[in-house]
C-alpha cells in the first residue's frame, strides 16, 4: 500500500506544515479500513475526476486508488455543469478496475443510484432528523436542497476502469457560495449547525459505497426498494430532458432497472437518462 503526498503550499508560514483536515494517520486509516489501496492527496487540484482519468492511463496496479483534494479549481458536474468546491467540502474520485471490483459493465447503469443511496445513508446517519433523499439519477438532497453530486466516468483504457467522482458539501457553508449555488444547495454543517470530521465522513462514505456496490447483481430487488423509499421525485410533477426530447408528467418512482417511471398524458414512460426539473 502506498500513499502519494502532493502537498501544495498552504502553510501560513514557510516553516509550518501545511494546514489540512487530513493527517497522515487519517490517510493511512483510509487504506487500512476501506477498499482503497492507494491515496493521492492534494491540497488543491483542478478536478479529482480529471486527475483520476489521467491516472487511469498510467496506473493499473494497486487499485482502487483514491484521489482526494481539499479544494478544486475546476470541479466538474454532469454535462457542462461546474461543481463549486469551497474549503471544508469533501471532494474525491475513486479509480477502480471494474472487473476486479466485481462491477462488470452490466452493473454500471445502476452505479450512480447505488452510490447516491450509500451517500444518503451516510448523511441520514449524521443528520438523523433531516429529510435525506435521492434525486434520480445521481444527486443527494437534504431538506429539499442538493448536498452531494456524483459523476461516474469510464476512461478509454483497454482494461475496464471507472472513475467514481463524489462531492459532498460538509463543512462548507452555503453562506459563502455564489448566489446560483446558494439558492438550491446546502451542506451538512448548514443543516446541523456544527462541523463534522472530514476523515470520518470519508471513511463512512467509502465503507457504505463498498457495502452497497456489493449488492449489485445479487440483491437488486432490495436495492430498488431502498432507492424507491428515498426517491425525491415520487408523486411530483417533473420534466425530463433527453437530448432534444422532453417527458412531462408525474413521477411514479424508480424501477428495478434504474429507470425513472413517469406517468404522462400518453401513458407511462421509462426514462433511462436525462436531466430532471421539478415543476
Ligand atoms: C453533479 O452534480 O452533476 C456531479 C458533481 C460531481 C462533483 C465531484 S467533486 C469530485 C469529482 N471531481 C469533479 O471534478 N467532479 C466530481
Q: Overview of this structure, please?
A:
The termini are far apart. The protein has an eight-stranded mixed beta sheet with strand order 1-2-3-4-8-7-6-5, with helices on both faces. Strands 12-11-10-9-13 form a five-stranded antiparallel beta sheet. Helices cover 26% and strands 30% of the residues. The protein has seven helices and 13 strands. Helix 1 packs parallel to helix 6 and helix 3 crosses helix 7 (220-230). A hairpin with a 7-residue loop joins strand 7 (145-153) and strand 8 (161-168). By secondary structure, it is an alpha+beta fold. 42% of the residues are buried. Residues 6-18 have low confidence and may be disordered. It is globular.
* CATH topology (level 3) name of the largest domain: BirA Bifunctional Protein, domain 2
Secondary structure class reads alpha+beta
Widest sheet: strand order? 1-2-3-4-8-7-6-5
- Tell me which ligands are bound: biotin
> What is the radius of gyration computed over CA atoms, rounded to a whole number of angstroms?
19 Å
**What's the architecture of the largest domain in CATH terms?**
2-Layer Sandwich
Estimated helix fraction: 25-40%
List the defining traits of the structure above.
alpha+beta, BirA Bifunctional Protein, domain 2, SH3 type barrels, eight-stranded mixed beta sheet, five-stranded antiparallel beta sheet, 30% strand, binds biotin
Q: What is the gist of this entry?
A:
With 279 residues, the chain is an alpha+beta fold. The protein has helices at 24-33, 48-58, 111-126, 179-182, 188-192, 198-213, 220-230, and strands at residues 2-6, 38-45, 65-72, 90-97, 132-135, 139-142, 145-153, 161-168, 237-242, 245-254, 260-264, 267-271, 275-278.
